[in-house]
Amino acid sequence: AQSVSQHNHHVILSEAASLELGCNYSYGGTVNLFWYVQYPGQHLQLLLKYFSGDPLVKGIKGFEAEFIKSKFSFNLRKPSVQWSDTAEYFCAVIANTNAGKSTFGDGTTLTVKP
Amino acid sequence: GAGVSQTPSNKVTEKGKYVELRCDPISGHTALYWYRQSLGQGPEFLIYFQGTGAADDSGLPNDRFFAVRPEGSVSTLKIQRTERGDSAVYLCASSLGGGPGETQYFGPGTRLLVL
Asked: Which of A16, A55, A76, B15 could lock A21 by a disulfide, CB 3.0 to 4.6 Å apart?
C-alpha cells in the first residue's frame, strides 16, 4: 500500500525566507506526485505535479519540487516566501497501478510573518 | 467556468440518521472522486468513479457508506446510521479523464457533524 509522510506539521517563516517542505512516499512502483495548497477559507488546489520527464517541476506562484526517486522524495521549495503563501500544503501520490486513488500526507501548515 | 460544487456546505445530524451529500463535477469531467478529511489530517480516499461505474471503492470504510453516479455527472454519497466518528469534511473532486497523472479539481467540501 502506498503512504505519504510530511515531516513538518507547522512551519513559521518571515517574508523573503526560503522554504523547503519535505515529502516522502512509500511505494515500490511508478508513481505520480502532487502538491496541493489550501489557502485560508478556500478549497484545495493544485500547485504542481510530476508524472514523467524532468524530475524538477515548476508550478504556480514560484513554487517548484524535485522528484528524487532514490530517496522516494518530492520536496517542495520556494526561494522567497510571501505573506500570501500562508496556507496548508499537502503532498499526494497516485501509483500508476491505482489510477484515481490518491494518498495524501497529513499536511504542513505554513505561516509567513510579514 | 464553474468549478466543482458540493451541497450542502454544512450538515448537522443526529447519530443514527441517514444523510446524503451531493457533488456536481465540472462539466465534461468523466472521473469523480470522494474523500473524507478529518481535523488535522489529509484527505482520505473513499471512492472513484469513471463515468457511471465505481472504478475503485476500496476506501469506503464499511457498508454504511455508499455512493452513486447514475448518469455519469452528479454524484451522491450516502451514509446510513451515522455515527459520531463520521464527522468530517467530505470532499469531492473531478478530473477530465481518470488517468493517474490527471489533475483533480476539488470542491469546497461538505462539513458533516454527527451529534
From this structure: A76
Q: Are B34 and B91 in contact (CB under 8 A)?
A: yes
**Up-side HSE of residue B93: CA atoms within 13 Å toward CB?**
27
Specify burial of residue B31 (Cβ count, 10 A radius: 0-12, 13-18, 19+): buried
Cβ B104–A46 below 8 Å, yes or no? Answer: yes
Distance of CA B82 to CAs B34, B60, B79, Å?
17, 14, 6
Q: Is A106 or B98 the better-scoring residue by pLDDT?
A: A106
- Ranges in chain B, pLDDT < 70: 1
- Residue B65 backbone phi and psi in degrees, to 5: -100, 135
CA distance A18 to chain B (A): 24
Nearest CA in chain A to B95: A100
Report which DSSP code applies to A27: -
Is the separation of the CB atoms in A102 and B37 below 8 Å? no
pLDDT tens string A59-100: 999 999 999 999 999 999 999 999 999 999 999 999 888 778
Q: What would the grid cell of residue A86 be?
A: 500562508
What are the chain B neighbours of A32 within 8 Å (beta carbons)? 100-101
A26 Cα to chain B: minimum distance (Å): 16
